[in-house]
Design a protein that fits this description.
globular; alpha/beta; about 200 residues; 5 strands; single chain; 5-stranded parallel sheet; Rossmann fold
Length: about 200
């Protein structure tokens, strides 16, 4: 089975690209979904977050208040690193389980794991190929402001909290530029899927 890592900065269109890969027949795992699962109620992940960040990051029902935690970590690099050190190992463990299951299901398949911080965490080294999704910086900011209802300043703070897009692109075996919108991104994705099949 070909194991592919897909990454890119915030609001560049990774979800759309993943949807296209799914339609084409690839197995796709959304790391955000995995990251949510490892901090659900009564998990080791949530227990460790409360231990390190205090009970004020919980909602009244005991679930994680993601917005509250986000406002803490996006504004503070060391707290962000602390959160990542808790969540990343749990996410990678879950991803590895998923990859094993997919390989058992179809040894000739293509399994794609989508993770925003794959390069930063070192998790990219586990994959046969890396795809980096990117777009022009001004478009990224517009999309993020619109999607998350943020001011330009808040959006910029989130973008700057991540590795620069130019740096991520250096790790790529394949690049998908979403600046021109859905149709252009879809065409690039289809082309790359055909190329990936050659590596199986």
């Amino acid at each position: 089975m070909l194991k592919v890592g897909l990454t890119g900065s915030i609001a560049v269109g990774k979800s759309y690209v993943c949807e296209v890969f799914r339609e084409l027949g690839a197995f796709v795992l959304d790391a955000d979904k995995t990251a949510r699962e490892v901090v659900e109620s009564n998990t080791e992940g949530l227990r460790r977050i409360v231990e390190n960040f205090g009970a004020e990051v919980l909602q009244p029902n005991g679930e994680l208040d993601r917005a509250k935690l986000g406002s803490i970590v996006f504004a503070n690099k060391s707290k962000r690193q602390l959160l990542n050190s808790i969540v990343h190992p749990l996410v990678i463990e879950k991803q590895n389980e998923w990859l094993c299951e997919r390989e058992y299901e179809n040894p000739q398949g293509i399994a794609i794991v989508d993770a925003a911080l794959m390069i930063e965490s070192g998790g990219y080294k586990r994959f046969d190929k890396i795809i980096v999704v990117w777009c022009e910086s001004n478009i990224q900011l517009e999309r993020l402001m619109l999607r998350n209802d943020l001011t330009a300043e808040e959006a910029l703070e989130r973008v700057n909290s991540q590795m620069p897009q130019e740096e991520k692109r250096r790790y790529a075996d394949f690049l998908i530029d979403t600046s021109e919108g859905f149709e252009a991104a879809k065409q690039q994705t289809v082309k790359i899927f055909e190329q990936l099949k050659l590596f199986i």
